[in-house]
Design goal:
Distance between the termini: 75 Å
Oligomer: single chain
Helix content: 25-40%
Strand order of the largest sheet: 5-4-3-7-6
CATH topology: OB fold (Dihydrolipoamide Acetyltransferase, E2P)
Order of helices and strands: HEEEEEHEEEEEH
Strand content: 25-35%
Number of strands: 10
Number of domains: 1
Largest sheet: 5 strands, antiparallel
CATH superfamily: LytTr DNA-binding domain
CATH architecture: Beta Barrel
Number of helices: 3
Structural class: alpha+beta
């Protein structure tokens, strides 16, 4: 014998509508870039710190590590590849200019066909990236 059983959520569990509504709100919040400042999570010892990406000057790869240079002359070594780090950073702000370097285009002072100058650091532009980087930098500096 088959009976009809009605499902009634318990009072301490959220209803399906509430769960779906919260999920939709979260997706909308994540989709709107203006409402969310760009930050990345940096581990310094046992501490995890959220850093605004506009404070990053450039990133240098050191084997399986990335050394992140900040505007306050500090630097942090993280065990993350440049490729993974570039995926976490905003595409319109960071540019890969060499197999070992990412630069924050907002901090680029000067550039030519072989290097980018950020503060006192001269960052080389790799031959592989030169064809993409130079037009991109020209376009960004023209704005």
């Amino acid at each position: 014998m088959i009976r009809n059983i009605e499902f009634q959520p318990s009072s301490n569990q959220p209803s399906l509508n509430n769960v779906l509504l919260r999920k939709e709100q979260e997706q909308r919040r994540l989709a709107s870039p203006a409402s969310q400042p760009h930050t990345i999570l940096i581990e310094k010892g046992k501490l995890r710190v959220e850093i605004p990406v506009q404070n990053i000057l450039f990133v240098k790869a050191e084997h399986v590590y990335s050394r992140i240079f900040f505007i306050n002359n500090q630097q942090v070594l993280q065990r993350i590849s440049l490729k993974k780090l570039l995926g976490q950073l905003p595409k319109d702000t960071f540019l890969r200019v060499h197999r070992s370097f990412l630069v924050n285009v907002d901090h680029v002072r000067k550039f030519n066909s072989t290097k980018v100058l950020i503060r006192e650091a001269a960052i080389p532009i790799g031959r592989t990236w030169r064809g993409l980087v130079i037009p991109e930098l020209r376009e960004l500096k023209a704005k």
